[in-house]
Every structure is written in C-alpha cells, then in structure tokens.
C-alpha cells in the first residue's frame, strides 16, 4: 500500500498556491464599440436658431453645442408646478420602483455568484455515529459483534480552479447584466419625466382648445338664432338655417372628444404620479404657464452614445453576449476541481482533539471533454448571439441618431409653422376688430361680426396647437439627447463600486 509523504500543512500550501496561480481567460475580451463616424445629425445643416414669432411661446431658440444635458431638464420650461409634478412622479412611480428592485436583484445576484466563484467554499463538519461490526466479517474469530462510537470534526475546502476563465466569464456576464438593469432604470426615469412633461403640455393645449371651441359654438348659436328670425321674416330660406344648424351641431359634436382627451390626460398624469385617478390632485395647466428654453443643447453624436440610456443598455447587452460566448468556449477546455479537508477522528470525545487523531485529505480532479457534439454547437450558438447583439447595438445607435435628427427638424419646421399661424392669428384678430368697428357704425351686420369671431377663434385654435407643438418638440430634443439621467460617468462609478 502506498503512503503519501505530504504533510497536512504542505497539502494546504499546495492548494493555496494553486488558487493563486495565473489562469487563462478564453474567449474575446469585451471592448466598447467605437462612437459613430457621423459628425452631424441631418444631411443638410440647421440654422443657428429657429424662426421666431410673437408671444411668450414664440421666441427663437438657439442650438448650442454642449457636452451634456442638464439632469433636471424639465426645469428649463419655467414652471415650478411642473417641476414638482415630475419630482413626485420620480418618487412615487411603481414602474420606477419595480425597475429599482430589478436592479437590486441583479446586483445581489452578482454578489452571490462572486462569493461562490472567486473564493473557495469552506465547510465545518462535526459528527457522531454509533457503529456495530460483526467480528466474523473482519476475519476475527467468532460471531461477536463489536459496538463503538465514532466522533469526528473537521474543515473541508473546495474550489474550482478556473483555469480557462469560464467562471470569471460567467461572473462578467452577471456584472454586465447589472449594468444593463441600471441603464434600464435610467431609461425608465427619462421616459417617465418625458411623459409627465408632454402630458402637461397636452392638458394645457386641450383646455385652451375647449375654451376656443366653446366660444365658436356660442357664436354659431347666436348666428343660428338670428338666421331663424330672418327666415320667419322671409329674408332667408330654410336652406340657410339648416346649413348653420349643421355647422353648429358639428362644432358641438367636437367638444366631447376634446373633453374626453382632457380627462384622459388627467387620468394619465395621476397614474404617472403613482396615484389613482379618483384620488390624485392634478393641477390645471395653461400654456401661459410655460416658456420655451432659449438655448437648446446639442451634443455631438460621439457623446450622444454615452448619454442615451438605451444605447448604454444595448452596450451592456453586447458585453453580456461577449462574456457568455467566453463561457461557451471555456466549456471546451479541461475543468479542474481541488478539495482539501483537515480534521480529527476518535472513538471518544475526550480523544477527539488529542494527539494521533488528526486526519486530512487533499484531492484534485481534472475533467476533459473527449466527445460532446453539443459543446461545439453551444459555442456556435453563443457566437451567433454575440453577432445578433452587435447588430442590435448598431440598430439602437442608428435609431438614436434618427430621434435627434427628427427632433431637430421638428423644432425648425414647427417654429416656422408657429410664425405662420401667429401671422394668421394676427390677421384674424385685426379683421375681427375692423368688422366690430363697422358693426358699431352700422356698416356691417351682426352675422358678419359673428363670422369674423368664428374665424378668429379657429385661427386661435391653430395657434394653440402650434405653440404646444414647440413645447413638445423641445421636450423631445431633451429626451433624444438622453435627458442627462444617469450619465456614463455615474454609471461607470456605480459599476466600479459594484465590482469592488
């Protein structure tokens, strides 16, 4: 029988040396994709500033190069009530709370896996057993049964020597998955803030539109009443009355849909705030409560990919796929497991820790796949997944560039629309004033005055829509730029703290 000449202390020293030995990490190392080569967002250049129009929502907005976007970008619209609403939503939203919990889960999963991957598992054992042995089975004469107690205590150490980095790649994938959840949370915050802001703008527009439509309906009702009296006097025919009646009823029919949209906007705001529609206290916004940001930040495309949460999330998924491919490749290589134990064993508790009771083991096992067709298929599948993640990343970047290009073009085009609508509104108001003066002098009929009032109100409705569009366009640009929520530097700091 061969007897080992390695002492327990020497065996543990060999195990520690094996744990500290350098290992190879197979598979590709993740590299952050290079920034887009595009230097601008649109094929043709934009003007330095947008067109201007009269009124508080008509000033020109200047496009200014910026390195980043302010975190609380909604404050640039100048409404303290809007600021409070966004902060309430960010604090109470169950959607954000779910995203925060998912992020905590991902980070704790990483820590749990890191604890069992990076370090050996150490287990303490303490046991006792009562045993009976028949002497005849042991070559001892007779049929005597020997009964004895056996006590043991010890410590066992197990470790998977990650020689080719499969465990480290799996841990790397979990860390990248936690980064992904962090950027998902940032994207949820950006979306929530944007929804609150644009819904507040829509609420203000709808309220003003309802007021203007009600004024039109009142003017049409007055005109219809006058026309009926004229018909009774034989001045006009029934055709004129029916035509005005149709116009009036169509205007009235347009009011319930507007009120429904306004109520839905209030309900949406309540849910965004994390409250039931019946319990939320939603402020009544007016378009006059807001003003346009005079300066609009425009970051270069290379910086955009570091600020957009969706692009950063796609980068994290690419990192996950890269690490998972490394895991699949490492499965093709040998796996080495080391174990050691040190303890004592005795027939009595008094002798358990006495001299001569020490026992120890030191073991190592190597497993090399000789034939497993599924391993190569798994590596090929992981490689295809990596290629898909790369393509998805490029698609996300292109979509981000498109979002910014759309927002910039909308700002420019809608500013020109507002200027035209403001001019039309001014002309309609001037026409109304002239007709009103003529009516007071007897040179115009009351019907002409009512018609001028309706035209003025229609022009005002179009103006309100153009004003609200400029507000929404400004919010859309902030969102397209990444909104300043969880910038790349902060995410990297969080990732470094997590990894440590």
Can you walk through the features of this model?
The chain is an alpha+beta fold and about 500 residues long. It has a single domain, classed as Outer membrane efflux proteins (OEP). The chain contains 10 helices and 6 strands. The strands form 2 sheets. The protein has a 4-stranded antiparallel β-sheet. Strands 1-4 form a two-stranded parallel ribbon. Helix 2 packs across helix 4. The longest helix has about 70 residues. The chain starts with 7 loop residues before the first helix and ends with a helix. The N terminus and C terminus are likely disordered.
Give the helices and strands, then pairings.
Layout: H1 8-20, E1 62-65, H2 80-92, H3 94-118, E2 121-134, E3 145-161, H4 166-232, H5 238-272, E4 295-298, H6 301-307, H7 309-330, E5 335-346, E6 358-367, H8 373-441, H9 446-480, H10 488-499
Parallel strand pairs: 1-4
Antiparallel strand pairs: 2-3, 3-5, 5-6
Quick overview:
With 500 residues, this protein is of the alpha+beta class.
How would you characterize the largest beta sheet? 4 strands, antiparallel
**Number of E strands:** 6
Low-confidence runs: 1-22, 491-500
- Strand order in the largest sheet: 2-3-5-6
Overall outline: elongated
What's the pLDDT, averaged over the residues? 84
The CATH topology name reads Outer membrane efflux proteins (OEP)
Strand proportion, as a percent range, falls in: 5-15%
- Would you identify the CATH H-level superfamily? Outer membrane efflux proteins (OEP)
The first-level CATH class name = Mainly Alpha
Over the alpha carbons, how many angstroms does the gyration radius reach? Answer: 38 Å
Structural class: alpha+beta
CATH architecture designation: Up-down Bundle
**Series of secondary-structure elements, N-terminal to C-terminal:** HEHHEEHHEHHEEHHH
> How many domains comprise the coordinates?
1
Q: Please estimate the helix content.
A: 55-70%
Number of helices: 10
N-to-C CA distance = 49 Å
């Amino acid at each position: 029988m061969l007897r080992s000449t390695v002492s327990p202390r020497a065996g543990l020293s060999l195990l520690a040396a094996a744990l500290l030995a350098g290992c190879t990490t197979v598979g590709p190392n993740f590299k952050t994709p290079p920034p887009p080569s595009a230097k601008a967002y649109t094929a043709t250049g934009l003007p330095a500033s947008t067109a201007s129009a009269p009124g508080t929502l008509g000033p020109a907005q200047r496009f200014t190069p910026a390195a980043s976007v302010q975190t609380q970008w909604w404050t640039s619209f100048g409404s303290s009530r809007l600021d409070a609403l966004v902060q309430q939503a960010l604090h109470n939203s169950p959607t954000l709370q779910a995203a925060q919990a998912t992020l905590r889960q991902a980070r704790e999963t990483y820590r749990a896996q890191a604890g069992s991957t990076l370090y050996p598992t150490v287990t303490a054992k303490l046991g006792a057993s009562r045993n009976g042995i028949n002497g005849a089975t042991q070559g001892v004469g007779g049929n005597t049964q020997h009964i004895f107690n056996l006590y043991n205590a010890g410590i066992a150490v197990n470790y998977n020597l990650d020689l080719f980095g499969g465990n480290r790649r799996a841990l790397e994938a979990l860390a990248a998955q936690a980064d992904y959840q962090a950027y998902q949370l940032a994207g949820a915050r950006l979306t929530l803030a944007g929804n609150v802001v644009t819904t507040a703008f829509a609420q203000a527009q709808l309220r003003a539109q309802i007021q203007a439509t009600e004024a039109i309906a009142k003017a049409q009702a007055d005109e219809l009443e006058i026309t009926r009296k004229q018909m009774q006097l034989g001045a006009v025919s029934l055709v004129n009355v029916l035509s005005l009646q149709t116009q009036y009823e169509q205007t009235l029919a347009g009011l319930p849909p507007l009120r429904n949209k306004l109520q839905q906007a209030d309900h949406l705001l309540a849910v965004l705030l994390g409250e039931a529609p019946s319990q939320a206290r939603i402020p009544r916004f007016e378009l006059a409560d807001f003003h346009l940001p005079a300066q609009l930040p425009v970051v270069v495309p290379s910086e955009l990919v570091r600020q957009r949460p969706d692009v950063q999330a796609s980068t994290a998924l690419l990192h996950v796929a890269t690490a998972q491919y490394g895991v699949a490749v490492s499965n093709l290589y040998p796996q080495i497991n080391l174990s050691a134990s040190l303890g004592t064993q005795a027939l009595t508790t008094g002798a358990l820790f006495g001299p001569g009771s020490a026992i120890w083991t030191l073991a190592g096992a190597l497993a090399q796949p000789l034939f497993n067709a599924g391993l190569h298929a798994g590596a090929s599948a992981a490689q295809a997944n990596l290629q898909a993640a790369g393509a998805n990343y490029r698609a996300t970047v292109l979509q981000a560039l498109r979002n910014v290009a759309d927002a910039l073009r909308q700002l420019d085009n809608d500013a020109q629309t507002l200027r035209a609508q403001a001019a039309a509104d001014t002309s309609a108001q001037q026409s109304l004033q002239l007709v009103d003066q003529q009516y007071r002098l007897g040179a115009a009929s009351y019907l002409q005055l009512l018609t001028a009032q309706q035209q003025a109100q229609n022009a005002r409705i179009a103006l309100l829509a153009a004003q609200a569009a400029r507000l929404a366009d400004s919010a859309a640009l902030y969102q397209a730029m990444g909104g300043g929520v969880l910038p790349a530097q902060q995410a990297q700091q969080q990732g470094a703290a997590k990894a440590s």
